[in-house]
């Protein structure tokens, strides 16, 4: 019997184990339990409303799932009383929305000037409140004598209540006012090497005033100078050198505000002329100290509240920045505050370090100032790199004696005023995207910058605002941030309230402490019990110390249906009829749900990224952020990103590709291959070099088919080439190199490419490479001279040789004559009168 009972027990355990394994293996996955409903796993009201499109039912004793999708779960929506249904909407309203003005004045001092109309109204979208023009024209009754304050941003302040991960699109407009005030502060390096530049600036002072007066009648001008910190090793601290560091030089100093911004521009030239140069030792200058003081000392400099602020920084050297002060024993960081005395001298030059680039950028943004780096050719590349780190700044090449300073300032001002770029001060929890068609009539594309603007032109933008997460600090649920055009002291202020919790979770309606619904040991919030310490359960009916009864009933509440033999989906333990889900090793991976059927880590991935980093994993399914779709949120829901910026026809992928998941897949047509983000680049296509050469020639060198200026202006409107010393091809940017030879047999080269807005850009070398000119007269005269000289040389040589030969012959003759021995001679033709003949045969007789 014992053996038989033991066998039965073992068989029962084995059968139970097999059934449990079978049930666990066939347990429906989280997707089956939740379907396409991301709300089902949410257990509290604040979790529910932080999920897009979900609503919460706070009714007591509600039998259904409290968190639901109203447009899908219509039964729950109909069952829940309206007073207990919590589904907060995104609310938008305007607080200040003064109309745009085409002309105006600058508010001075420190106030806003003119005031704003305070009109409150609720607007669910922009179109319902913008059917008419936002421009406000001056009344004719003013007689032209009264001018309104310039308003260039519409609206000026709004309120927005926004749920998490639900993007809200808000429209706003910008227009550049006519005759807008300009404050120009000229900050000059007055080290010894800039002496000729100072003289030229004083000579051109009146021309600068006249040039800027053509832009605006409300123009103010100021002047300041800098050298460097009066500390070794920046300057020579020998007592004699501190008085006169170089011949005709003044004592060194850090920074001086010589002329406050003033409409009395006539004294500018005189003050510049009378300013003394000084000397320092090292090559970099203390310009950052001067920039910081010129920006933050608003009252001393005289910056107006409503004006375009230009700071022209002129130097022929580099700059010291944060950390360089340690070389002189200065370790105190720059505090970014104003330290000018009554004479306009920087008092803390030797007390604190130079500011950093990020500090300069921060102050530039806070004070809406455009810096123009007017530097010499040797420094232009350094300041062009610096330009990328200082918002709204531009770099231009200054001639050696600053003779082109007026032209440079005018060109840079035109470049600044003809474009607008929107930025914001939103925190990391808020994501803002910008869309606009700029001056076109096509669909709005994602861009924050528009070029080619003219005075009075209105540009409409759309700001897509999305709260990506609720900050841990409740005080940060209400935030204020500004949307502003770079370099303009006007803003659109957004008062944002994040809808991160429910009202019923705070004391008041639907909030009851020690509620009978919670057995007196919990607080009823939004229809759900929040149990006190030591109690748990749906109605706080459980305690870890109480004895449990009704074993089967107890575990049945931890199973989704009667067919399942697995408690809490096999990923938790059942305690007092409630599943306690397991905790993962990774604290960010959470198992949740009434039956532990959900988690936030089992969703589809793309390239190893959960939900492609474009959504959140909710109960095993990706809940995509606005603008994304697909099982792994890897596809854009809009085709806007496939339309090249600047186009008006709305053609996807420039007609050379297919838009797949918001990205262009470019075609390959035979030997023709398209590339680029919008398939608008074709390295293998015939280049436009021959087409562009005439315009490059006339615009850069005044030669070619369009050498006549009027003809050049008429035929070359597509681009204005940027002049560079050396043309370097950026292959990564798909730049196409071009080479040419003109009628003067001069060689030149340039590159062209298309920028992000599909606009043609050209860079060409400043100077052509021409062969040396042939001096024909010199050649002819040279040949003649050479022939004459060669002839003379030959004659001289002949004369020399003949002389030598004659002398040798004469010497030999003289020698022979001296050595001759003369005998008595007979006349060879004389014959004697007698002749004697001998007979050869006669012998001795």
Automatic annotation (TrEMBL):
Positions of disulphide bridges: 45-54, 246-249, 297-338, 438-450, 470-738, 500-504, 526-568, 531-540, 542-558, 574-579, 576-611, 581-596, 598-603, 617-622, 619-653, 624-633, 635-642, 659-664, 661-712, 666-679, 682-685, 689-698, 695-770, 716-746
Biological process terms in GO annotation: cell adhesion mediated by integrin; cell migration; cell-matrix adhesion; heterophilic cell-cell adhesion via plasma membrane cell adhesion molecules; integrin-mediated signaling pathway
Annotated TM spans: 774-798
Integrin beta subunit cytoplasmic domain location: 799-845
Lineage: superkingdom: Eukaryota
Position of the signal peptide: 1-25
PROSITE patterns in alphabetical order: I_EGF_1, I_EGF_2
Residue ranges occupied by any Integrin beta subunit tail domain in the UniProt entry: 689-775
UniProt xrefs under SUPFAM superfamilies: EGF/Laminin, Integrin beta tail domain, Integrin domains, Plexin repeat, vWA-like
Coiled-coil region(s): none
One of the record's GO molecular function terms: integrin binding
Region (Disordered): 126-150
GO cellular component, one term: integrin complex
Compartments where found: Cell membrane
Predominant location category: membrane
Pfam families noted in UniProt: EGF_integrin, EGF_Teneurin, I-EGF_1, Integrin_b_cyt, Integrin_B_tail, Integrin_beta, PSI_integrin
Residue ranges of every copy of the Integrin beta subunit VWA domain listed in the record: 44-502
Protein topology in the membrane: Single-pass type I membrane protein
Record-stated family: Belongs to the integrin beta chain family.
Protein name: Integrin beta
Species of the source: Lasius platythorax
């Amino acid at each position: 019997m014992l053996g038989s009972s033991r066998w039965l027990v073992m068989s029962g355990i084995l059968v139970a184990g097999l059934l449990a394994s079978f049930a666990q293996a066939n347990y429906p996955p989280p997707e089956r339990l939740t379907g396409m409903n991301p709300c089902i796993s949410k257990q509290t009201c604040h979790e529910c409303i932080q999920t897009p499109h979900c609503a919460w039912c706070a009714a007591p004793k509600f039998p259904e799932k409290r968190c639901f999708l109203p447009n899908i779960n219509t039964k729950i929506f109909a069952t829940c009383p309206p007073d207990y249904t919590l589904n907060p909407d995104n609310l938008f309203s305007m607080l200040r929305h003064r109309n745009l003005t085409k002309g105006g004045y600058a508010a001075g001092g420190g106030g806003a000037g003119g005031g704003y109309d305070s009109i409150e109204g609720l607007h669910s979208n922009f179109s319902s409140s913008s059917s008419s023009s936002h421009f406000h024209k001056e009344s004719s009754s003013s007689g032209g004598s009264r001018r309104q304050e310039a308003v260039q941003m519409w609206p000026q302040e709004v309120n927005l209540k926004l749920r998490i991960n639900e993007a809200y699109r808000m429209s706003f407009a910008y227009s550049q006012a006519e005759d807008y005030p300009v404050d120009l502060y000229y900050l000059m390096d007055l080290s010894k090497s800039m002496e000729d530049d100072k003289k030229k600036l004083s000579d051109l002072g009146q021309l600068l005033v006249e040039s800027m007066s053509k832009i605006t009648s409300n123009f103010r001008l100021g002047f300041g100078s800098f050298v460097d910190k009066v500390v070794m090793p920046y300057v020579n601290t020998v007592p004699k050198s501190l008085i006169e560091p170089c011949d005709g030089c003044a004592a060194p100093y850090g920074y001086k505000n010589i002329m406050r911004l003033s409409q009395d521009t006539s004294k500018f030239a005189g003050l510049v002329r009378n300013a003394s140069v000084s000397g320092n030792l090292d090559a970099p200058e203390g310009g950052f100290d001067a920039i910081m003081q010129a920006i933050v000392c608003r009252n001393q400099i005289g910056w107006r509240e409503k004006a375009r602020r230009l700071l022209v920084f002129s130097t022929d050297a580099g700059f010291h920045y944060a950390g360089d002060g340690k070389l002189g024993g200065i370790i105190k960081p720059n505090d970014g505050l104003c330290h000018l005395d009554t004479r306009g001298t920087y008092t803390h030059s030797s007390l604190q370090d130079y500011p950093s680039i990020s500090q300069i950028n921060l102050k530039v943004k806070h004070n809406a100032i455009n810096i123009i780096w007017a530097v010499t050719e040797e420094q232009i590349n350094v300041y062009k790199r610096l330009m990328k780190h200082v918002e709204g700044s531009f770099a231009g090449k200054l001639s050696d004696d600053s003779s082109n300073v007026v032209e440079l300032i005018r060109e840079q001002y035109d470049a600044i005023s003809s474009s607008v770029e929107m930025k914001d001060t939103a925190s990391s929890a808020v994501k803002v995207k910008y869309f606009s068609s700029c001056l076109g009539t096509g669909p709005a594309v994602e861009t924050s910058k528009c070029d080619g603007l003219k005075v009075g032109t209105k540009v409409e933008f759309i700001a897509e605002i999305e709260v990506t997460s609720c900050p841990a600090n409740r005080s940060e649920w209400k935030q204020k941030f500004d949307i502003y055009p770079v370099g303009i002291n006007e803003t659109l202020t957004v008062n944002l309230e994040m809808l991160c919790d429910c009202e019923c979770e705070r004391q008041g309606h639907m909030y009851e402490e020690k509620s009978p619904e919670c057995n007196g040991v919990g607080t009823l919030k939004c229809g759900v019990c929040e149990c006190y310490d030591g109690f748990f359960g749906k109605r706080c009916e459980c305690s870890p110390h109480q004895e449990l009864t009704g074993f089967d009933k107890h575990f049945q509440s931890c199973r989704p249906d009667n067919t399942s033999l697995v408690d809490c989906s096999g990923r938790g333990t059942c305690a007092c009829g409630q599943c306690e889900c397991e905790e993962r090793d990774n604290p960010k991976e959470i198992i949740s749900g009434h039956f532990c059927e959900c988690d936030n880590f089992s969703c589809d991935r793309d390239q190893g990224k959960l939900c492609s980093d474009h959504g959140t994993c909710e109960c095993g399914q990706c809940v995509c952020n606005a603008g994304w779709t697909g099982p792994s949120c890897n596809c854009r829901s809009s085709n806007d990103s496939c339309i090249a910026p600047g186009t008006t026809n709305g053609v996807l992928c420039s007609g050379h590709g297919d838009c797949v998941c918001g990205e262009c897949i470019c075609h390959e047509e035979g030997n023709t291959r398209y590339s680029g983000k919008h398939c608008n680049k074709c390295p293998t296509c015939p280049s436009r070099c021959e087409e562009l050469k005439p315009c490059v020639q006339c615009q850069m060198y005044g030669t070619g088919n369009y050498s006549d200026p009027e003809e050049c202006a008429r035929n070359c409107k597509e681009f204005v080439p940027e002049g560079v010393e050396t043309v370097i091809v950026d292959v990564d940017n798909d730049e196409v190199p071009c080479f040419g030879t003109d009628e003067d047999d001069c060689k030149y080269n340039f590159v062209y490419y298309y920028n992000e807005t599909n606009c043609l850009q050209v860079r060409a070398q400043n100077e052509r490479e021409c062969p040396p000119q042939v001096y024909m007269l010199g050649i002819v005269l040279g040949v003649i001279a050479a022939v004459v000289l060669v002839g003379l040389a030959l004659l001289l040589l002949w004369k020399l040789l003949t002389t030598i030969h004659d002398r040798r012959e004469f010497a030999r003759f003289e020698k022979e004559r001296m050595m001759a021995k003369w005998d008595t001679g007979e006349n060879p033709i004389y014959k004697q009168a007698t002749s004697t003949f001998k007979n050869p045969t006669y012998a001795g007789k």
